[in-house]
Amino acid sequence: MPSHPFDAAIALEPTESRGMSRGRTSPDWANMVGPFGGITAAVLLRAVAVHPDRAGDPVALTVNYTAPVLDGTFDVHPRALRTNRTNQHWAVDLSQQGEVKTNATAVFGLRRDTWSDTEPSMPAAPAPEDIAPTGLPDAVVWAANYDMRYVDGGVPRPGDGPASSSTTTLWTRDRSGRALDFPALAAISDIFYPRVFLRRGAMSPAGTISLTTYFHVDDDELASAGNDFVLCRAHANRFSRGYFDQSAEIWSRSGNLLASTHQLVYYKA
Prior knowledge:
Elements: H1 5-9, E1 13-14, E2 21-24, H2 37-49, E3 57-65, E4 73-83, E5 87-96, E6 99-109, E7 146-152, E8 168-174, H3 182-188, H4 195-200, E9 206-215, H5 219-223, E10 230-240, E11 243-252, E12 257-267
Helix pairs in contact: 2-3
């Protein structure tokens, strides 16, 4: 059994059904309803990463949260849809009792040495050592796995009132010192609380429907980030008729853009 709570939560075992593996939800990664969406994304990415037919590193992952995942076991079924010389397309389902709870598509690719550039600049922020540890309310169980230090846009407190901007910036890292890998980066892509909380100054029912993460580094570049803090920034573009979108970036302390993410969130307000 893996000793780290993250590795235990994404552990998968083969089943009698060809190509299918089985996992189990972890109480360490519980959310308000079901498990943290980031840990579910990490499970689906790992299911492809450990598949014997997988080629290359993750390039993109889109996860659609179709129904709440219940506590207990679940089955994961990755299927390679097409492979060519540079990239590979996958579909992945997570199901319980024969019902699909989450589905995903993933692209893995073989990266080549080419001309490269990063257009956005890393947000300016104080060093994480100069910011007091903060985080999310204790009721959000999964958040205890991270050391979070908000630069701006922290969780609204009673009396704060609505904010004029939906932007949140924070430093974060695994609290137990686990180094970053692609499943861990996929999980951090969903680390932001709903933007509607910040804009309205209060919590209300909300949940991610679809999350896409683009991975901008290969395995070696990601490994260089080690277990250090990463800087995360997120903002929404529009809130309308019960849905809002969120765009985010995740940067290494050294200034490498590790991933960018986009998601669609349902809310009541």
